[in-house]
UniProtKB/TrEMBL annotation:
Job description of the protein: May mediate accelerated ATP-independent bidirectional transbilayer migration of phospholipids upon binding calcium ions that results in a loss of phospholipid asymmetry in the plasma membrane.
Keyword flag Methyltransferase: no
Superkingdom of the source species: Eukaryota
Name this polypeptide is given: Phospholipid scramblase
Length: 253
């Protein structure tokens, strides 16, 4: 798969009139008011020319040490290392210590200008193998306040199975994971396909060596997602959200 071209910078004057709101992350974040939800241009244009994204996860260690909660930060880049998005996790301070990868949370996705372009909401739910009647569910909004789709876990006895739908409930993609999701001396791929079985891409958990697995995996990790270049930016955003869910489900320790 060829590398994507560098992501063009978004003109600053397009969002000059947006109101900035406080956030606990290290970068400034601009909040959209309710009146601006349907008037601003697409906030996901950074994904228009992309066919692959590399994701680095880092645990916010200070939050854990000072009992402010277990929260991750993700950096989403193109293959040529251009930063596309920074993703900040928000949750109640105690859930990360007790619920681990199943914790309810919100993910705020900011572009390089500090504008919040997407929000991902994840309520608490059990895994499919524990309680099949309460499965994982993500709501994806872009801009925050406008639903663009959902990711829904489907019950399966062995293999991970997820269904991606648009805002109208129409099936877009299926994700069928491997029988063994443990990343041990190998990369683990989760193929993505359309309802008719046509492949559109995959998400991959990278094996980074035994030393990393033993010492650094709880603090930092890397994975990625590849998809067809001609997908809509909303479809690419949903596949990115599904990739983050898979990381929480199987690799967040």
């Amino acid at each position: 798969m060829t590398q994507a071209a560098p992501i063009p910078a978004v003109p600053g004057h397009v969002y000059a009139d947006l109101v900035k709101g406080p956030v606990s992350s290290a970068i400034p974040v601009t909040q959209l008011s309710q009146e601006e939800v349907d008037t601003v241009p697409s906030l996901l244009d950074d994904l228009s020319s992309v066919d692959r994204l590399l994701i680095t996860k880092r645990l916010r260690v200070k939050s854990v040490i000072f009992l402010r909660g277990k929260m991750n930060r993700f950096f989403v880049r193109t293959p040529d290392r251009n930063l596309v998005y920074t993703v900040e996790e928000e949750n109640s301070w105690w859930v990360g210590y007790f619920c681990y990868g199943l914790r309810p949370l919100q993910l705020r996705v900011m572009n390089s200008l500090g504008l919040e372009v997407m929000r991902i909401n994840r309520p608490y739910a059990c895994t499919a193998r524990v309680l099949p009647c309460q499965l994982q569910h993500l709501d994806v909004f872009s801009p925050p306040g406008r639903l663009i789709g959902t990711i829904e876990q489907q019950w399966a006895a062995v293999r991970p199975l997820y269904l991606i739908k648009d805002e109208n409930g129409r099936e877009l993609f299926w994700i069928r994971g491997p029988f063994i999701t443990l990343s041990l001396f190998r990369d683990v791929e989760f193929p993505m396909q359309r309802p008719d079985g046509t492949p559109v891409g995959s998400t991959c958990k990278r094996w980074q060596g035994l030393v990393h697995a033993l010492l650094f995996a709880p603090i930092t990790d890397r994975f990625g997602v590849a998809f067809e270049r001609d997908l809509t930016v909303e479809e690419k955003a949903l596949l990115l959200a599904a990739t983050l869910l898979i990381d929480y489900m199987y690799y967040d320790v």
